[in-house]
Predict the 3D structure of the following.
Amino acid sequence: MEEKLFDGAFYAKLSKLRMSNRVKLTMGLSGGRKSTQKGNSVEFSDFREYMLGDDIRKIDWNAYGRMNRLFVKLFQEEKEGNYRIYIDGSKSMDYGSSNKSIFARRIAGMFAYVALYNLDRVYLTQLRERNTVPGKGKTGRQAFSKLLVEMENMTFEGNTNLHESIRKCPISGRGVSIIISDFFQEEDLEPMLRYLAYQKQEIILVHVLANEEVTPDLEGHLNLIDMETQRDFRVSMSNQVLKVYDKTLKKFRGNMEKLARKYRAHYLYVNTKDGLDKIIELSKKSQIMDYKS
Amino acid sequence: MHFLSLLPFGLFILVPGIILLYILKQKSQDKDISSLYLWRETYKNIEASTPWEKLKNNLLMYIQIAVIISIILALAGPYIANMGKESKNVIMVFDNSGSMNALYNEKESRLDAAKKKAVEYVEQWGGQVNVTLLCSNQNTRVVLSNNKDTRKIKEAIYSLDSTDVEGDLNGSVSMVKSMAEQWDSYEALFFTDSSLNLGKINGNLVDVSSQKDNASIDYISCEYTKENEISGVAKVTNHGRENINGDINLYVNDKIVKIEKTGEIKPGENANVYFENIPLKNKEESIVICAEWNEKDALEADNRSYTQLGVGEKTKVLLISEQNIFLEKAILTMEQVDLYKANSIEAANETGNYDLYIYDGVTPDTLPEGNVVLINPTETEGSKEIFSYKEENKEGAVVNINPQSYTRLIDNDFSFGVGKYKVLKPRGNAEIFLKSKKDSLGFIVERKKGKVGVIAFDIHNSDFPLQTEYPILMNQLLGQMIKTELLSEKVITAGENYEINQVSYTKEKVGVYSVSGESVEGTKEETLVVNFPTGKESDLINEVVQSNEKNKKEQNNSIGIIGTINIKPYFIWIAFILVGIEWIAYLKWK
């Protein structure tokens, strides 16, 4: 029986989450997020002395009474946040007893849910080998159900070049780009990060691996077949080989982490067997999300 | 490095087998994975860190091949030649007794198998070992002495003949012991089918025995029951492990005359088979009778036993002498002779007829009919027809041989001294065989009713009896005077001696022989039958046991090679160590 993509437990977890204020936004339509720009809102930000041309309605008369000088109140302008969620649509994501594709969509759903409930705009895009269709921006809580339908209809095929696919999606203004992938690709990931950084994106790399990839339970002489390319590779398994594999995997993750640090990106590594709790924990640790108080 | 046997190398066929198994085993299973990205990286790391990693995948196979090779080499009996300080002297003793004719396998006899094994050893030594070959049955004979030439040694081994003689290798053990004293070190190899106590000698038995069933005819005994009718009995022994029941064929002069059933004979037991009242067409002077076991078994030579009937009666000799021990001894050297003695002529006249009369120091007035020998005769009426008396006691002389047919065994230069002798002149044609200058001291005169031999001196008054030629000459002379059988024995067991004219001979193979020789009557031909020594040689299911005083080990089949280092144990250890390594490797890399 196919695993249900989003269930009650999933929603229960999400209800208490919210995006952290750490992500600063300066552009976009008015929304529910505090912008670094000062503007018209109820959220007080600062005082400054009155200058000619200032709206006299914003003069703080109480302060004038105490100090006999004119001060105007500054208010933080509330802006709409842009969240771009990219799901790696390659065949390699459709792997594992606890399937990476399902887990990736749940993570995407989590981020989308939190963003939409913060009145932010969410662009969900599946990165495909060909015909990557940029997701349309969706906002409002009612958009979440549409995103879920979109995610449920996703198929995972072919071999995706993440950078090439992301470049096909137009990015305007600051925002947050969340890339959910196993990052198994021969091509260098740095150009992608460089591009996103250039586009003033706060980057979150969610590295999803199946447990079978972290601790492979393989033995004997095997002809390993790449699900994406159908190329094969003969391997004689042994303890030594598995040890080296483990080292290679750690090195791979280390390189990813280094790369993320270089572009001030968040790197969240998760094993599908650990579940969503792990990604929530990591998000909180990285101050991407926190619980509503 | 040399090897005792090349046969185990045939097992190298297993090596490609193992490789083939690995190739088949390595047919890898297809496994879908998300991406080869990490695996490629992994293998780059493996190759970079351990260059031998590629080998490691097949290391178990290499270890298994090495184990197989070690075992094969160990089985081949490897050794390094010319490494020891020991000298390289080997004494090979071949038992060629009767039982060695038994079948070792379907094709070859035990002796053939022994030769084959010995040749294998010799080839392995490659001309580096001094080999002495002895051949032993009841006697031990040196066939080849201290030789390194492989070709000559092999020729000598192949030239060894089989015999049907009873075996006793103890004599060879003594001979080996005395031969070995000349060397600092040596090794003796006894190729035999019998147990042997090697005492303190450094030797080993090479066992060529084979547990085979056998039956033997132990003897056949016959007698005339009527003029043209014989009866007899043959004894059959079952030396095998199962009951036997067969036929015994009776042959007379090679013609089958009767077949009798033996009945059931249990293992280790024997049965007598009787042949009664077998009619003969003609009564012959001498007949050869043979009993034959009609079934095929492991040893053929003991399936026949022979005897003869009609052998002549003994010759009667009368010696008239007061006392002449020299003469008595000389007469007793003759086979088939019954000696009668009388002190005086009167006493002699009271008895019957004899084939030969010997008068010592006395001469009757009338010579009896037949053959007579007169020693130191006196002048009587009877002697006048033989010789004339010239002188009574002539003083000493040197007596020489005057060659005759019966003196052929004596050197022509032979001479002896006589204190006193009588000068006699023979009448008619006399054969003079002893003379001194012109005097005839020994001669034979032919007369109508027999021969008369004369010796013209008292034997006691000469040094003739002290000479080694004395018994020979007397035997020949007396033999000339009487009819004798050529053969001393007419039925013998293989290896036993028979004599012709006092000379011993032997036959080593069973069968019927026609033997000819010079007798006093001229060239004569007689039949000799030779039987198999069934008592010791027919039992083929005895276990071979080697006793050795040095180490009380029994049945030590391992042959040490002189002057070499046996490296077989090292290969066995290597095989064990490799199996251990493989086990550890298997557990570690599983």
